Amino acid sequence: MRFDVITLFPAQFTALTEEGVVARALQRRIAEIHLRNPRDDTTDVHRSVDDRPYGGGPGMVMRYAPLRAAIEAARAEAAAAGVRSRVAYLSPQGERIHQAKIARISAAPGWVLIAGRYEGVDERLIEDCVDEEWSIGDYVLSGGELAAMVVMDAVIRLLPGALGHADSARQDSHANGLLDCPHYTRPETIADQRVPQVLLSGDHRAIERWRLQQALGRTWQRRPELLQERGMSDVEQQLLDDYLREASRSRPSVGAEQSEQ
Ligand code: 4FV
To answer: Which InterPro entries match (predicted)?
Structure first.
């Protein structure tokens, strides 16, 4: 998988490319990230990449021409390497990204990502050159670089061979539309807190069942809308009912608010 990132701050990406799962995936050629600064695609003596907004108002807007030139150059380089890349712009106006979308993004051979700065980019650049617009959340960043890194990290870790244990991506939270179950490691006891007995049982079916029940219960309590979206099998509904009954027994308050819903 190939990413070409159009950015005024290429050095920021060392946070992603120097260490960790993504750095290892790059070393293993499971993915590649190319950074391109649109300032290198300017033609004027001031190498200007931004200008004042028509209609006045605060801030600056990224200019059309340097961005278009950078996108076309990046797509041409990718095509020369046999990769047909689609173009995505990271912005708060984009489609909200979630795990299912990340999985779809990871299925494409290549993406050119535009990391905006200032107030954003000239709208005509989006109309003429952008295939998809993505948002990582309803808040405003000072630049699209962090958003591009978030997307690339979430995508690259899904690629075959990127994670040590192939299964771990499949067991991810959100991978099955649920929040993740609790995790424990040594020591077995901390103060009076013991690791749930089932996890010490060696009974993998019981452990799987407990982890699913925990994921269902926590999703119900913390993100009920995800469960509405996802739906549940009869077995899962039964597991959730048992979880909530157990929860209301151990923490009466839990019962109270449930009945209200
Ligand atoms: C953003 C987001 C985001 C907006 C103005 C960059 C900034 C500045 N990108 N999801 N939320 N972008 O806040 O993707 O140009």
So the answer is: Alpha/beta_knot_MTases, tRNA_m1G_MeTrfase_C_sf, tRNA_m1G_MeTrfase_TrmD, tRNA_m1G_MTases_N, tRNA_MeTrfase_TRMD/TRM10
Catalytic status, residue 172: yes
For ligand 1, whether the C-beta of 136 sits within 6 Å is yes
pLDDT of residue 63: 98
Q: What is the pLDDT of residues 11-33, one digit of tens each?
A: 999 999 999 999 999 999 999 99
Cα 183 to Cα 124: distance, rounded to the nearest angstrom: 48
User: Token pair of 139, please?
Assistant: 């808040």
Total-model pTM:
0.92
**Nearest atom (ligand 1) to Cα of 140:** 13
Instruction: Enter the DSSP assignment of 197.
Output: G
What interhelical angle do 252-260 and 234-250 show, nearest 10?
130
Q: Is 35 in the pocket of ligand 1 (CB under 6 A)?
A: no
Q: Atom 6 in ligand 1: which residue has the minimum CA distance?
A: 143
pLDDT in tens, 42-63: 999 999 999 999 999 999 999 9
pLDDT in tens, 118-147: 999 999 999 999 999 999 999 999 999 999
Where along the chain do its domains lie?
2-156, 189-256
Among 116, 130, 6, residue whose Cα is nearest residue 62 = 116
At 89, list the tokens. 């712009």
Six-digit token string for 119:
């107030």
CATH architecture for the domain at 189-256: Orthogonal Bundle (1.10)
Name the class of domain 2-156.
alpha beta
Residue 100 C-alpha from the chain's centroid: 10
Ligand 1 atom, smallest distance to 118 CA: 15
